[in-house]
Automatic annotation (TrEMBL):
Taxonomic path: Eukaryota, Metazoa, Chordata, Craniata, Vertebrata
Short name of any one Pfam family annotated for the protein: FAA_hydrolase
This enzyme's EC code(s): 3.7.1.5, 4.1.1.112, 5.3.2.2
Gene giving rise to this polypeptide: Fahd1_1
Gene3D superfamilies: Fumarylacetoacetase-like, C-terminal domain
Designated name of the protein: Oxaloacetate tautomerase FAHD1, mitochondrial
């Protein structure tokens, strides 16, 4: 299918980032959350994107910024109420992503029953790798992802541990929010999330496919 836009640079024009929370049982448990029976969804705006060469900036109102490494799914063909058995036809490729989270702010929002926007949607909260064409990942349901902080391994997991599969998520999300070309779905993070400080270096990768590096800065 010929695309009118360059999917290799989906972050420059894609209109939304749809994130799935608590999609790995061990991560739900490490934050003392119940393991969900249906997907937990939240959004990031396109202004959250940041690519290699730029820094992750800690929001000025947070003192506990956490990393969450995730497999991102890039939509190549839009649709509404996409059936599960056709869901993968709508995928153009993937990206390795970080869902940077102001955990102190999120904890406060949870206590007050407020939305997570301040904790999840700030500028630079969605670092992404280069676009990974679909052919490069034979089975997105069996992908090993990892993240290191200053060379120390913090997160390592496999998408086979996800509660909700990619076809299920595409179908579920598109029933509620129509998907469009260039949209990104963040599929959740494995356990091992932890705090990062100014000057830390984050490295993340998909085994044998891609790796990326970001530095953490405070606002000037």
């Amino acid at each position: 299918m010929a695309s009118s836009r360059n999917l290799n640079r989906f972050w420059e024009w894609g209109r939304k980032i749809i994130c799935v929370g608590r999609n790995y049982p061990d991560h739900a448990k490490e934050l003392k959350n119940a393991v969900p029976t249906e997907p937990v969804l939240f959004l990031k705006p396109p202004s959250a994107y940041v690519t290699e060469g730029s820094s992750i900036v800690v929001p000025f109102y947070s003192h506990n910024l956490h990393h969450e490494v995730e497999l991102g799914v890039v939509i190549g063909k839009g649709g509404t109420a996409i059936p599960q058995n056709a869901a993968m036809d709508h995928v153009a490729g993937y990206a390795l992503c970080l869902d940077m989270t102001a955990r102190d702010v999120q904890d406060e929002c949870k206590t007050k029953g407020l939305p997570w926007t301040l904790a999840k949607a700030f500028n630079t909260s969605c670092p992404v790798s280069e676009f990974i064409p679909k052919e490069k990942i034979a089975d997105p349901g069996n992908v090993k992802i990892w993240l290191k902080v200053n060379g120390q391994l913090r997160q390592e997991g496999n998408t086979s541990q996800m509660i909700f599969s990619i076809p299920f998520l595409i179908s579920y999300i598109s029933e509620i929010i129509s998907l469009e070309e260039g949209d990104l779905i963040l599929t959740g993070t494995p356990k091992g999330v932890s705090s990062v400080q100014e000057h830390d270096e984050l490295q993340a990768g998909i085994e044998g496919v891609v790796s990326m590096k970001f530095r953490v800065d405070r606002p000037q």
